[in-house]
Fold:
Amino acid sequence: EKIPISSYKNQIEKVQNKLSNTNVQGLWVGQPTNIFYLTGFFHTPTERPVVLFIPVTGNPVLYVPFMEFEEAKRIGTVEDVRHYFEYPGKTHPLVWMAEDIQQTYRGLNHLLIDGTGLMLDILAETHSPVDLQSTSLVTEMRLLKDEEEIELLTHAAKYGDAIVHHGMKVASEG
Structure:
């Protein structure tokens, strides 16, 4: 069984609710495990960055390399998936993403970044005079489980137990 799309959308809404209680206008998520937690989109981090931008209101945007575009669309948790053709290209993908976010969401002046130092450096250069602040918001959210997450983990543990028991039955010494 798959985690329902509604579960991921609920997590994004939780982020937006947390942001709405601040003067922050959006969250730039660059950590692969946090992107997976919020969208269900899994990717192996390489030099080709993947970013999820969550505005305080409205729909998020998932930025992926072209080679990940079809998979990101297939997952279906984020409707607005945008891609860059190749890395590094004429413009660094992070610069392109930052410029696209500025064009899509006019008037941004305070963003949180859940990403690497490189992302923060590039965004500081391209988003100026936007106030950028590093955050561990999503990582902290992953540590606290709500009822739905506990139910999903309990269900997954049953599969894990069944696999271990089956393995013990078919395993032999030597």
Notes: The longest helix spans residues 147-170.
